Amino acid sequence: MNSKLNIEQRLGDRILWWLLTIALLCGFVISAAQVLVDARRVSSDLETQATETIAMVEDAATKAVFNIDSDLAARVIKGLFAADAVHLARISHSDGETLASHDRPLMKAPHRDLTDWIFKAQRTYQAPLTRDDSDTVYGYLEVHYDTAPAANTWLNRSVFTFASGLATAGILGLALYFVFHLLLARPMEKVIRAVKAVDPEHPDGRLIKIPRGHQRDEIGLWVNATNNLLVAIGDSQERHREAEVRANRLSQYDQLTGLPRRETFMEILQKDIEQARSDNQVLSLMVCGIDDFKSVNDQCGFRVGDLILQKLSDRLSTTLGGSRFSLSRLGSDQFAILEKGIQNSFQAAETADQVLACFSTPITAESQTISMSATIGVSMFPSDADEADRLLQSAEQTMTLAKQGGRNHLQFYVARIDQEIRNRKLLEKDLSEALARGEFHLVYQPQIDLETRRISGAEALIRWNHPSRGFVPPDDFIPVAEANGAIIEIGQWVLEQACWQAAQWAAKGIDIRVAVNLSAVQLQQPDIVEDILETLERHSVPAGRLELEVTETSLMTNMADAVDKLEQLNQAGISIAVDDFGTGYSSLTYLKKMPVQHLKIDKQFIRDLLLNDDDTRIANTIVDLGRSLNMSVVAEGVETAEQEYYLSQRGCRLAQGYHFSRPIPAREFETFVHRFHGQFAENNV
Fold first, then answer.
1. Global pTM value
2. 99 within 8 A of 93, measured Cβ to Cβ
3. Is the separation of the CB atoms in 397 and 415 below 8 Å?
C-alpha cells in the first residue's frame, strides 16, 4: 500500500514540475519578447534623439560654417556635449577641414560587450549644413553617440522584465498547481485511500464517499462508477461463494435425498472409527439395498422412484435421528447406516429390524401405493474390520450375498463371506472358459399334454460339468453369467444346440416343440430378434417348433421394449411362455399386453399342492387366469400322481416334472419318447 502511495506522490511532483517548467518557459518567452521590443524601442529612441539634437543645432552650425566662425562652432560643439550620450561632435567644411571638434571616451560599463553586440558601441550621425535659400552644402555636422547610457537603462529594465515575468510565471504555475491539488489531486487522494481501505473479501461493505463539492463533476461520476463496480464485484463474489457452497454440498451430499455421499460418508466413518478405537467402543455398519427397485422404476417411472427414495430417506432420518446414527446414500437404491456406541450385535440386529420395517411399510407417491422390501448386510467394528474401507466393503459384500439368498432379511458378516467372494470370482473365471472348453451340455425335460397323454414339448436345460468342481448347479452359475454378461454368449450357444437338436429329432419323426429359456440380459440386446430368427433359418427349424421362456422380471425390466421384441418373435410363429409365473412383481397388470401363449406355474406352488391351502389356491388362480386369457398353463415340478390328477381335473393342460421324467440327454430323451408313447398305446389297448 505504501508503494502505491509513493507513486501517487511522485505523480503530483511531476505535475508540479511540468506546471512550473511550462509557466517559467512561457514567462521567459514573453519576457524575452518584451525585452526585444524594448530594445527596438531604445534603438528608435536613439535615432530620434540624435535627429532632434542635430535639428536643434543645425542652424547655428550652418552659420558657424558659413561665417567661418570658430568660436560659434566651438560653442555649438560644447552645447552638444551637454548630452551624456554624445561621444564625439565635429563641424567641418565641405572640403573636410574641421572647423570645431571635441570628443570624450566611451562610458565604461560591466555588460558593455552584451549591449555593444545589441546596440553597437557607438552610432554616427552626419547632417549636411545648407541655407534655406540655397542648395549649396557649406559643411557637415557629425555627431557620434555612445549607446551605453541608453543600453544600461534598457538592461536594467530587461532584468526587471525577466525577473517580474519569471516570478509571475512561477506564481501562476504554483497557483495552477494549488488549484489542481485542491480540485483534483486531494479528492483523488481521498478516493484512492478509500479504495485502499476496501475489504477485498467484501468490497461492497465499505463504499467510497464522494468528496465534498464533487457530486456533479467527473470525480463524482468516477466515485459512483467505482461504487457500482464494487457492488457488482460484491454481488459476483457472493454468487460465487453461494455457487461454491452448492458445489461443495453437491459433491458431499446426495442431491436427491440430502444425505452424505459415499466419499463424505467415508470421512465420517473414518473419524468415528478413530473415536471408537480411542474410546474402546463398538460400531455397526449396515448397508441396505432395496429389493428389485429396478422393477419399481420400470413400472412406475423414474420420477416415482425418486420420490420413493426421498420418502425412504426421510423415514430413516426420522427413525434413526440423533447423534448415534450417521446415514448415507451410497448410490442408486443403497443406503448406509452407522450406529455408534452399541454394546453387541444383538443391539445392531434390533436397529436392523427397525430399518427393515421402514422399507417394508408401503409408500404412496403420485396416487400410487408401492410395497417393497430391503436386504441388509451388517459388519461390526472392530470384530469384522478395523479400517473404514474394509468395514464398508464387508457390509456391501454381505448385503450382495444376502440378496442371493432371498429378500427382506438381514445378514451379519462372517469370515466365510470372504471365501464366498473369492469362490465367486473363481467361478466367474472358470465360467468365461467353460464354453470354449466344451464343458456345457444340454438336457431335456419332457412336457406332457395331460389330455392326450402325449409328449408335446421339451424344455432345454443347460448343465455344466466342471473338470474339478464336478456338477455345478444352474442356480449357482446362471446368476453369475447374467451379472457379468456371459449369459449372452451362453444363451446363444443353448439356442444353437436346441435348434440343431430339434432338426435332428424332426428328421427322426419326433415332431415336438423345444422350449429355451431367454434371460433378461438377452432380451435387452438390440439384435436378439434377428439372432433368433437367423438361428432358426440356419438349422431349417420352423418357428412353430421353438418356444421361448421368459421370466416376469425380464418382462418388467423394460416393458415397451420387451413387448415389441416378443411381438416380433410371436408374429414369426415362435411361442412365448412366462416362466416361474406368480413370483414376479405385479405382472398380472401387464399380462394381457404380452404376446404370451403359455403360463408356467412355478414349482414352489406345485410342491405343496394339496398339502398347503395357500399354494393350492395360488395354483388354482393361475390355472383359471390362463383359461380366461386363452393361455395354456404348464405346471412345473409335478412329482406325484395325485398332483397330476388334481391339475388335470382343474384344467391344467401341460405338466413337467420328475413324476414323468427328470431332465435327460438327447439320446435318452428319444428313447423316453418312444417308450412313453408305446406305454400309452398299450394302456389304451
1. 0.49
2. yes
3. no
